[in-house]
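In keeping with the milestone schedule agreed at the kick-off meeting, the structural modelling team has produced records for the first pair of proteins. Each record is given below as a sequence line and a structure-token line. The laboratory manager (R.T.) confirmed that both were archived under the project's standard naming scheme.
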Amino acid sequence: MNWVAVQVKKIIGAGRAASSSWLPGQAGQTTLAQPGAARSGQAAGEARLYHYQIEAPGEKTRAHLRIDPDGSGVLLINASRVLHLNPTAAAMAHLALEKTPEAQAIQAIRAAYTVSRQQAASDYQAFNQQLTELLRPDGACPLHDLDLEIAAPFSARPSAPYRMDLALTYRCNNDCAHCYNPRSSSSRRPNGEASSPSLVIGTQANELDTADWKRILDQLWAIGVPHIIFTGGEPTLRADLAGLIAYAEGLGQITGLNTNARRLHDSRYLQSLVDAGLDHVQITVESHDPAIHDQMVACHGAWQQTIAGLQNALQSRLYVMTNTTLLQENSPYLGETLDFLARLGVPTVGLNALIYSGRGAVVGSGIPEKDLPPLLEVARAKTEAQRQRLIWYTPTQYCHFDPMQLDLGVKGCTAALYNMCIEPNGDVLPCQSYYHALGNLLCDPWESIWQHDLSISLRERRLIEAKCQDCALLSECGGGCPLTIEKTIPDFKTRCAPDSKRSTE
């Protein structure tokens, strides 16, 4: 997902109260609540997460408003746009989204701020107009059409990530040589032949049961995580996938699925996921050529099932995108693959470089960062011509490949910041491919996981090469993917340890 970071600075005149947020009171009254105050069923000091479904003719929006203990907030729109709100804006957004009668909203504002009724009404009405545009799927651009202040990339420090990837299983019915998962075993034969199309790699050992995954979803909602991605391994191998989707949707979370889509060739199975409430799906397609795709996933016949699953998904109500890992095997034919996806009607195409984790760290088929620009030029030209959306995922060192030069947006590592991952046994990882457990969500307090030394090191960009320390682009680049540079830093583990100041606290 692409995140748009915008700091909404709607400030009401003089006499502002310290960080405050409004919550619905009893008997329809709107009351002022101090940051951290608990509502029913919620502990003091926890973030509050609210879910809204907004429908208009031809438009549908799912919005999540998270108000952190300090009163600041985050508004997530369709799990693809993120607006960072200061306490005043967060409070106004809550009043507006709760459809508080305007007279009551103005009264609450005046109770918190020493302003006239005219000033409170003017500011609230202006904010409402901006919010209405922001909530529309094709509404005004927050950067160009609205008078909003822009926050520096990756400057927001939330109390929990916006998205959590749930690796339900590490079992898989493919056997990719470049897989970033070091936990799974391989069925590759000594001569390198691919596995049978009916073979499933890995076992169910150490997988949480359905009840435990529901407990995890409950905890994620409680700490304010609005977006859930079911992944693996291959998540469609879990018999309870539809039930877990339905449970998360019942809480109010947006749900997505990362899959090879082979099981989606069964239209009845796909419909069961749609009926459960699944919102979007990302399907891995490594090539337009069946031979190249099957070679890369090491399974004869996989391409046929994947493309059948993709076509079924495109005929459903799901938001569909594909993802392709650019390697030496498939990158020479990228143009043909993009043309093929366009003919199928894929609206959004994702691309990434090799992830240097698991088998990916030793496979040797990755493309150096400096060689990526020509490939991305092809991708941009092809997708623009077909009016498709192009998403580039991989954080790179901008001195080697600057995605901003190709209008691909700011790309930096968001591990343990805006996204994290939970393994099949409940262990929490900084991201889906960073296999250093920070704790277990069923056993350890969230705060100990979020404030783990590695989590802090990643957020503070401590794990970077010396050449990056004084770079003007560090705030955007972040030094590249930590997995790529981990082996180049002699004192990598030392930098993950607490600094002297933190250790004495």
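The second protein of the pair:
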Amino acid sequence: MSRKKSIAMLLAGGQGSRLGSLTRHIAKPAVPFGGKYRIIDFTLSNCVNSGIDTVGVLTQYKPLELNDYIGNGQPWGLDRNRGGVHILQPYTKINSKSWYEGTANAIFQNIKFIERYNPGYVVILSGDHIYKMDYSKLVNFHEEHEADCTIAVIDVSWEEATRFGILSTDAEGRITEFEEKPKKPKSTKASMGVYVFSWDVLKKYLTEDDKSEKSAHDFGKNVIPAMLKDNKRLYAWEFSGYWKDVGTTESLWEANMDMLNPACGLYSDDDDLRIYARNYEGPPTYVAEGAELSESIITKGCNVAGYVHSSVVSSDCVIEAGAQVISSVLLPGVTVKKGATVQYAIVGQGAVIEEGAMVGKKPSPDESLEITVIPEHKKITGTVV
């Protein structure tokens, strides 16, 4: 069997507990985003745009909707006879059965899948980030530096640094220190959770890590520190484009609001970086006489008669006359009835905001941002903030 230069392993099994009710019934990568997408669309599209045609998607938490959405990979050009997209879930083995017990363990449990393609390099990705990236540039950098591991990094603020894996480098970009979510970070170079490993090296370290009963079987906590300890060649590749970890309701809301800015970095005339999604088959959107729309995204199948400002409205939403939607995200199938107001909120799929109800509130200048989240299929009366 011919050898693949690179394949991708996409970690998509996280519960996303910080997204609350939005991930009660679906995995985080399947959460709708930006009106027409799911979060996972960005990583899958990046793979195809980078020339990576073999992608293993590792699912675990409530995978049904995510599995159904990915299907045979056709929307992303991943419906191939050799390679393509593969859903990889935990499975029972002789004398043992277990869930994925960490990011490294998830890859370890799928060594047989990787070996089918005998790749030179394995690109490890997360399915819950919003960004555009050409991974081929990262792989080429890895090759040129004869690296064992290359980590894509982005500069963050000192306040944000405690949330990420933080690394230090020498003048040539070689990593000298790495610490996962440090209380006192030494730099602002944050891991994006995008790694390239030389496969022969990664396989060795995954196998050794699996034997350790003390390990959390995590790349950031165990595998990368072990490689550094052994003086392996680890390099940082700096990324300067748009990137957002949408692990909280506030960051998910912010990323949706960023979509309203054509200069945010997610829009591009470059077809090589297009984001693909499974097409929604529905009628065109209807905007009634008297409706007021400004600085908003309105997706297919909507019926809008009310006031919409600075908001992202997904498919099949109804906004009745006299209703107001301000600085909010409506997921598919939401109804906002007349006289209702929704502001600074994310409203779950199929929810109904009843007549005269009030959802969310505008934060005052001295208040931190708090986004109101309405669970899917919930009927709201009265006031919810």
